[in-house]
Amino acid sequence: MPELLNLLDRPQIDAAAALPSPPLHTSPMPGDIGSPTLSGSEHGLSNLEQIPSRDIEWDEERRGRDPIPVEADDVNALSLSVDRQASYLGASSIKAALMVMLKVQPGLRSSLTPPLNSVEMAHNLPIMRQKATNPKEPQRVPWSWKGQTLIDAYFKRIHVFVPMLDEASFRADYLEGQRYDAPWLALLNMVFAMGCIAALKSDDYNHLNYYSRAMEYLPMDSFGSSHIETVQALALIGGYYLHYINRPNMANAVIGAAIRMASALGLHRESLAQGPAGTSKEIAAAETRRRTWWSLFCLDTWATTTMGRPSFGRWGPAINIRPPETGVSSARDSAQHAGILPLIENIKFCKIATAIQDMLAISPLLRAEDRCNLDGQLVNWFSSLPWLLRTSDPCAEPLYIARCIMKWRYQNLRMLLHRPVLLNLASSGASHAAEHDIAAIEACRDLAKQTIEDISREWSRNQMSGWNAVWFLYQAAMIPLVSIFWQWDSPRVPDWQKQIETILELLEAMEDWSLAARRSREVVWRMYEASRQLEPAILRQQSPMQRLQVATDHTGIMNPMGDGSEIHMSPIGLEPEGFGGMMGMLDQHGLWDLDGMLWGAPDEMEWAQQHFGGNGNMHDGTPAGGCGLMGQLGAYGIDNSAFSFVH
Description:
Blueprint: H1 2-8, H2 42-48, H3 59-62, H4 94-104, H5 108-112, H6 145-157, H7 167-176, H8 182-199, H9 207-216, H10 228-244, H11 248-264, H12 270-274, H13 280-304, H14 341-362, H15 368-383, H16 387-390, H17 397-428, H18 435-458, H19 463-486, H20 493-509, H21 517-532, H22 534-541, H23 544-549, E1 551-552, E2 558-559, H24 582-585, H25 601-611
Antiparallel strand pairs: 1-2
Helix pairs in contact: 4-17, 4-19, 6-8, 8-9, 8-10, 10-11, 10-13, 11-13, 13-14, 14-15, 14-17, 15-17, 17-18, 17-19, 18-19, 19-20, 19-21, 20-21
């Protein structure tokens, strides 16, 4: 396994041109949905799918010898350094938002280039070097209070999202201390590692020790393992842990391998899960197979929806495994107040998200009717959630964390669906916008604002909440930032500024509960400071006549005056040079941003002109109205009890 992980850190050199995924016949979308690329040609699509050059190294493999901050990786790229060494990602990207801001205001570049302050380097994650060693001889792990505490934290804050372990059986095996086979020990140590993250603050690095021990039990030939515990250990490694320590490309490869291993075990087929009817042990084993497969499905979806890469068929006609069943055993889960309910509803969400991911991998700017259809599916999913997952009534902490993150993820995906319309109009300099495009922009802005308000009320002081909250706040921040840079003289600017200031306050408060909070705050703060200098700089460069030509209606969309003259979104000329390292700077990853794009400097402006160029090729349609947001959740109170209740 260490040898393989070293290989996974390296850039892929030999890659064929990517092909768009075929329509998912199991999706609830109509079969004729298929948005064309903006350019209407294969040339435009080819610009989206650039392959990394042969001479690059990702941050993930350089981390072993260079002093790269813990928050940095080639996808995350929050180091603020001029570093273009990036892996391939697609078009549904925060980098697209940055590109629009730089196009509208090229002077922003100077605000993003100063070196890091020493205070930003507070997280110094120890360098992790994968060594080629022989598999470790399995040894029994005796019970300890520390181990018990970490297991409790895992089942309290992680298990509710991916309930693939039989809790009663797992706890019994640990208590008895009789199992010492390599697959079990690998899984146990990954439960310890995730328990550390769930229980402690972001400046604690004990999880590294458990991860290293787990890897000692996962040699290269473990990928040929027939043990479900190996698949479960790899699910935690690729679905969570490697994202947490900012190894997103490795995580993507490991979770993909885990899915292939699961299919080799037949976890995707219901006929194999059923087995002979009979004993409770056989029923529990079948349920574990279902939970493991669907946990993998959700982990892969959550991590890759905003990557701009296709889903590569994780959901299709050959997968007939049933969703997990409720009521199999009320003692299986410590989150018994929610039971298996969050996973069942997340499966439904992830099927819609997979369809959206494949659509955006083909073209980031969907036809209005397609966007309306997909948005409607999301709204219907949320409005149909069981009362337990929509109410703001007090509840056990596992359920509280799960339902908050489910809502934030729902809002983020809807925002991602509408965001290309905002970027298209902001970048194009168009003086008109169709009604359905204005509606999409307003939906995007409303969702960003609602996300900020909800997270400010709902986040809790643990890393599962803080980790996700920082990522979703960072995504939401791009909407008011783009709006300010585009429509700097809109009467709505004070409201957008207030949203950003709220985000900055929240990110500061979350520094103990997210590795990325401090760096994310620095990035947003620099852009915000640049935006506050924008109006005086623009007015200095405008003639009096130019200032009189601009009018703004209540939507904030720029409209021409009565003379019909063309109005450009920014009077500042667009510089022809490449954007240097700034294109990587804003891209968040881990479970923050699996979002971004590799753009070669000479091609960046060509891509923007073709894909956000405002060629007037607008499609008719009306986006679904309303956000379908659930009511305000109550305040929370979390203590060290097994089930602290939220009031």
